[in-house]
Amino acid sequence: MTVFWIMTALLASLAGLLVLAGARRGEDVTEAANTAAASAELDELDRLKARGLLDDAGWTAARAEAGRRILSAERTTTTVVARPSDRFWVLGALALSGAGGLGLYYALGTPGLPDQAYVQRVNEWTAQSPETLEAPQLAAVVARAVAERPNDHEALTMLGAARFQAGDPIGAVSAFRRAVAVQPDDAQSWARLGESLVRADGGRIGGDAEAAFREAVQRDPRQLGARYFLGEAALVRGDAAGVRAMWGPLIAALDPEDPRRADLVARMPGGSA
């Protein structure tokens, strides 16, 4: 960590020098461009006079006008000069900031503390109550239990649910696949597998997800979540009969005051259950 802060300070100092050098080059380029433009304008007036396109009076008036414009531009242009001493001020400020940051780190931080191993953190989470853990922490704790008992169906379903809540649908799919392999008659695990597949596919109900939902409904017709997704898939295909077959029992099971019921009725082909 200390090496990191030292390298950061060095890079910041280099960036400051580059900024000052760029400012100086920008000033030089601007001055050179202005000088070149003025010289080109005066030379063009001389060529026009030499070719007889300007008489003496016109040449004199044009040169006078050009001179006035050049002088006016010089008066209105504010030139910022990066003096040699400026870089020392910049470097001094960067050094002071770096030293202050390192001082705070050594005063408030613990530079001598080694990295805390992930296994140690999992040990600490295991000793805590599951209700106090966040979803990723709970998933890590349950994953350890699954590693020790790979055929524990309950642990596998808990792992899948924790990973799903932690925003890891692919990990949840893996856990629920293992759960249904251990206990194929678990309709709820089939339904959760389907939901995880939908989440992993960005909300699309693919063939694998639909097959999982059908397994869930086949084993337990009361799996209302699976019925909802199967109805959605049928609706996308334009299968009105399939939508009614899936959503009819779902609508009947929902409370009449539930807004989800009204939404399903409105989307049902034919407008009613």
How would you characterize this protein structure?
The protein contains twelve helices and no strands. It has helices at 2-50, 56-76, 84-108, 118-127, 135-148, 153-165, 169-182, 187-200, 207-219, 224-237, 240-253, 259-267. α8 runs antiparallel to α9. The model has no long low-confidence stretch (mean pLDDT 78).
Task: Pick out its properties.
273 residues; 2 domains; Serine Threonine Protein Phosphatase 5, Tetratricopeptide repeat; 12 helices; single chain; mainly alpha; elongated
Question: TL;DR of this structure?
Answer:
With 273 residues, the protein is mainly alpha-helical. Helix content is 77%, strand content 0%. The chain has helices at 2-50, 56-76, 84-108, 118-127, 135-148, 153-165, 169-182, 187-200, 207-219, 224-237, 240-253, 259-267.
Mean pLDDT: 78
The tally of strands reads 0
Helical amount: over 70%
CATH homologous superfamily grouping of the largest domain: Tetratricopeptide repeat domain
CATH topology category name of the largest domain: Serine Threonine Protein Phosphatase 5, Tetratricopeptide repeat
CATH architecture heading of the largest domain: Alpha Horseshoe
Order of helices and strands: HHHHHHHHHHHH
For the sheet with most strands, the description reads:
none
CATH domain class name of the largest domain? Mainly Alpha
Shape assignment? elongated
Poorly predicted segments: none
Helical segment count: 12
Tally of domains? 2
The structural class is: mainly alpha
How large is the radius of gyration? Answer: 38 Å
Distance between the termini: 65 Å
Strand content: under 5%
